[in-house]
Design the sequence.
């Protein structure tokens, strides 16, 4: 094998690993969204303008700026903040599963910078904790809860990641089909999608009263 061939092979291998890692990252976002009753319009991985593997997940979550009910506000904000953290946490779990190592390489965190910034902005803006030290405790506790949720549904994250690696883009209909057909938790997801569908049908008129009725009827809050 020539030097150029070896270099090309190495680059292809590195690109494949990036695609796998990004697929798990976006699947973490996706499954956490669905666990928190947010409709995921699509999730995808692609090559960006810098020739790097990137990913994006589009999801629907109500704006809470004018909500007054603290329980509704806390649920929606916690879901939005948690979704930002879920991608990197999924990558960490996958990395540990592959090599048994808890220490996540620093260079693999680069793709999560925007997620962390957005989560921190929401925590400060909506005063999820009053001081810097309490905000850090809030983050630690939330990340621990997210990790527990993702580990519980790790088989589902893997299902989504494998399909995303293969097809590069999955829309809501396909995500729903995968989880209702292939998941060991299909009974859970059947109930979950029923609530998600109910929320999405009311999306044009999803005021505080409407979402409160839905969340309380299904004992979410």
Sequence:
């Amino acid at each position: 094998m020539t030097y150029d061939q070896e270099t090309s092979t190495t680059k292809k291998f590195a690109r494949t690993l990036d695609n796998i890692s990004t697929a798990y990252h976006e699947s973490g976002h996706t499954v956490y969204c669905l666990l928190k009753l947010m409709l995921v319009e699509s999730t995808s991985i692609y090559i960006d303008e810098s020739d790097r593997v990137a990913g994006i997940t589009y999801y629907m979550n109500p704006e809470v700026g004018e909500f007054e009910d603290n329980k509704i506000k806390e649920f929606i904000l916690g879901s939005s903040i948690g979704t930002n953290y879920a991608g990197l946490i999924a990558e960490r779990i996958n990395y540990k599963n592959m090599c048994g190592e808890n220490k996540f390489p620093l260079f693999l965190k680069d793709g999560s910078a925007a997620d962390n910034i957005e989560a921190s902005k929401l925590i400060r803006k909506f005063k999820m904790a009053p001081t810097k030290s309490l905000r850090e405790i809030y983050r630690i506790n939330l990340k621990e809860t997210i990790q527990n949720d993702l580990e519980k549904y790790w088989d589902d994250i893997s299902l989504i990641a494998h399909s995303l690696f293969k097809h590069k883009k999955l829309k809501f209909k396909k995500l729903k089909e995968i989880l209702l057909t292939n998941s060991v938790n299909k009974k859970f997801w059947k109930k979950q999608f029923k609530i998600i569908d109910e929320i999405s049908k009311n999306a044009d008129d999803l005021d505080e009263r409407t979402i409160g009725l839905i969340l309380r009827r299904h004992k979410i809050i």
Summary: The chain has a mean pLDDT of 91.
